[in-house]
Amino acid sequence: MKEWWLQVGLLGVPLLAVYLHIPPPQLSPALRSWKSSGSFFTYKDLNIFYRDSSGAVGSSDVVVLLHGFPTSSYDWSKIWEGLTQRFHRVIALDFLGFGFSDKPRPHGYSIFEQATIVEGLLRHLGLRHQRINLLSHDYGDTVAQELLH
C-alpha cells in the first residue's frame, strides 16, 4: 500500500484521457434558438455572447441582465418576453467563462474583469452614456455592485 499514488495514477490517467475526448453534448432546441437569436462581440480577442432585443414602444428604458453562477444568460429566458413588454431594450450577456462566451484556460477570472466586459458591451452597443437598469442574481449581483461602484 506504499505506492497508492501509483495505483491512483494508473487508474486516473486513462479516465482523464477518455474524459477529455468525449464530445460535448448536443444543444437542446431551446438553447439552439437562444444562441441563434444572439450575437458576439470581441473583448481582448475573446468572444462574448450577448442577446439584445427591442421591446416596448414609447419607453426609453434599457435593462441589462446579469446571470448567476454557474449558468448563463439563458437564466433569463422564461421572463425575457415579459421584460421586452416593459423595457425598450433588454440585454443579457454570458460572462467570460460561461454559456456561449469563450472559456480561456489558463485565465485569471475576476469580478472586475466581468464588470469591464459589461462596460465594453455597453460601449459596443452605443449605450455608454445612457441610463441603464440592472437586474442581477447570484454571481451577477457581485458584478452589479462593482458596476455601481
UniProtKB/TrEMBL annotation:
Family annotation (InterPro entries): AB_hydrolase_1, AB_hydrolase_fold, AB_hydrolase_sf, Epox_hydrolase-like
AB hydrolase-1 domain mapped to chain residues: 62-140
GO aspect biological process, one term: acylglycerol catabolic process
Presence of keyword Acetylation: no
One Gene Ontology CC term in the entry: membrane
One Pfam family it belongs to: Abhydrolase_1
GO MF entry, a single one: monoacylglycerol lipase activity
Keyword Protein biosynthesis assigned: no
Signal peptide (UniProt feature, chain positions): 1-20
Keywords: Signal
Family: Belongs to the AB hydrolase superfamily.
Protein name: MEST protein
Originating species: Agelaius phoeniceus (Red-winged blackbird)
Lineage, opening ranks: Eukaryota, Metazoa, Chordata, Craniata, Vertebrata
